[in-house]
Amino acid sequence: MENQSKKEIMLERMKEKKQEVRIVRRIVSVIALILLLVIGIAGFRTYYFVSGALKPVDPDADNVVNITVPIGSNLDSISRLLEENGLVKDARVYKYYVKFNNQAEFQAGDYGLQPSMTLDEITESLKTGKVYREPLFNITFPEGLTIEEIAENVIAKKTKYTADEFIAKMNDKAYIEELMAEHPELLTEEILGEDIRYPLEGYLYPATYPFYEKDPSLTLIIEQMVAATESNVMQYKAVLDDMKKTPHWFLTFASLLEEEATAQSDRQTIASVFYNRLEEDMPLQTDPTVIYAMGEHKKRLFNKDYEFDHPYSTYKNKGLPPGPIASAGSSSMQAVIDPAKTEYFYFLADSEGTNHFAKTYEEHLANQRKYIGN
Prior knowledge:
mainly alpha; Dna Ligase, domain 1; 14 helices; 52% helix; extended; cell membrane
């Protein structure tokens, strides 16, 4: 009887375990089914969201939405602009759509677009530059100009404002702080450094700007230029973050290349010279910084000029100057990010502006005798 009881107990336990196994299997099956449903629902929602975002915002709309694509705008900013104005449903979807179709060459300008337009139609309009109105006039700001040169050679000649009025705006602390609040990633405290001559030096992007009113305000002119600088600089933000460098450093470096070079290949090679010198803790010894420090327009420097002691002089100080010495264009910016790989430490320009590079000081002296004569 005792043995029988033990057998019955064992059988009962086996039944219980089988029952537990069946319950566990059911639970696992239910969980798996729930997971599949969740994944399926998420996938369906993603598909529904993306497919919806690829369609016109309002197929029946007949109103025109006027937008302005600033000079220097990148795909991110244009996508956000379209979403903010109700022309696409989602900026991210539109950005990836354009990238997938390899159609990112957009033109700056004013556009009249409709919410009923397809993504293809919007993209084609932005590519062809079809604008709904013509600008009253354009103002061209050449590359390589300083704040003072912009005031004298562009503002005073192309607008109703005097050079002094423009310079006063450049020194208006309250206005500079307003701009800093509007562009916090670009305009940092570095522009207010003790040795900085003008906070916005190097931050006014050189380009041709269209204007749609007869007498645009100084603030409109300046803010368009700062916005264009931001668009151009921020496309390199990830790279600069990896380099642990700031936009101020970037624009300062680019301004040196703008003042020293004429061809893109020269910019990249000169950039390599500067990088090589910085790595070896050598002064950059670039003449445009001395000219900027002296505040004079000089075609040639003499020995006594190199002794001029000033924070901007890269003959008297190692490293980059406190800030940009001119407005750099896209070619100079690109050269900072993508310099040539060389072993050059020296270069000089001959009477025709052609640059000659050297690895050693002896080679540099030989180039001086050959191309300059002293």
